[in-house]
Amino acid sequence: MNKLNVLTKRLEVSLGPDTADLSMRIGLHSGPVTAGVLRGERSRFQLFGDTMNTASRMESTGTKGLIHVSQATADALVAGGK
Question: Can you tell me the distance from the alpha carbon of 75 to that of 28, in angstroms, rounded to the nearest whole number?
Answer without folding.
Answer: 12
